[in-house]
Amino acid sequence: MGETDKIINWKIRNVSQLIPRESSSPIKIIGDHLWRLTACTGNVEKSDDEKCLATHAHCFSFSKDDAWFCDAEIEYRILFQCLSKRTAVPKSHTFTHRYDAHHSNFGFPNIIRWSELMNPDNGYVLNDSIIIQAKIRYLDDYFVIPMIGTELVEQTIQWRLPNISQLSTTYRELPMQYICNNDNIPWFVKANSECSDRTDHENYLTTFVIVNEDSASDSWSCQVYFEIRLLFQKLISDDDAPIMHSREAKLSASCTHTGIVKFIEMSELLDPKNGYILNDSVILKIHLILLKTNGF
C-alpha cells in the first residue's frame, strides 16, 4: 500500500449518544493533504423520522494556492466487532469526488439505518463503540499544481487546568504560544464554563483558539485546523479513548477566534468515575496546524 492508498480506522465511542452535530476523527496526513472523517445522525428521508448514520470525508491541502484539487476514491466500511462475525466481510460503500478549496467534504448522508447499526445481533457495536474504516485512494493526475517545498506548520501542547471544579464564566487562558512559519504567529486557548442559549441552558466546558489577537495589521488572514483532546488521567478500560473535538476555520483581523461551545457537560467532566479529573485538575491536549497564511 503506497502513499496514495491509505486506510483510516476510526473508533467512535459512546455511539448511542451520537447527535446531529458532527463528531470528528483525528487527522491523517496522506500525501500532501490532511484527511479526517466525520459522523452524525440524520434521517433516512427528509420527511422520515427514522434515524440513520451519516459519514463524510474531509480533505484539506496545506498548499498556499487555492487552485489545488485532488480526485479521490473513498471506500467506507463499518467493521464488525463481534467475534462471531469478524471473519465476515462488511458491506462497503464507495464514491469518487473531486476535492478542492471550495468543496472539501463529501460522503454518505445515509450509510446505514440506525436500527440496523445498533442491533446487537449485527455485530457492529461493542461497548457502545463502532469502528468506521475509510480506504482513500488518489486517482491519477490528482495535482494541478506541484506541491514543491510545502511544509506542515504545526504545534502540540498540553494544558493542565487546576481547580476545575471552580471553573466559572470567567475565561482561563493558556499562556501565549508561538507557531513559526518564518513569522512567529501568536496563539493561545481560552476555557470557561457556560450555561446559556448556546448550550441549551446546560452547563458545558467551552474552549476557544485565538490567533494573532493583538496584531496592529487589519489585512492578515490564516486558515487553521485544530484538535482539542480531553485526556484521561485514570484509564477506565482499554476501549476508552480521549474525547476530541476538531475544527477547520479561516481567521482574520475581523475574527480572530474559533472554538467548541459544547465541549463536554461539566457534570460528566467532574464525575470521578469518568477518569478525566485528578486532584481537581483536567488536561487538554491542543494540536494546531497552520494551513495557509496571508499578510504576515
TrEMBL record:
One Pfam family named in its UniProt record: MATH_2
Chain ranges of the MATH domain: 5-136, 154-288
InterPro entries listed in its UniProt record: MATH/TRAF_dom, TRAF-like
Protein name as annotated: MATH domain-containing protein
Organism annotation: Caenorhabditis bovis
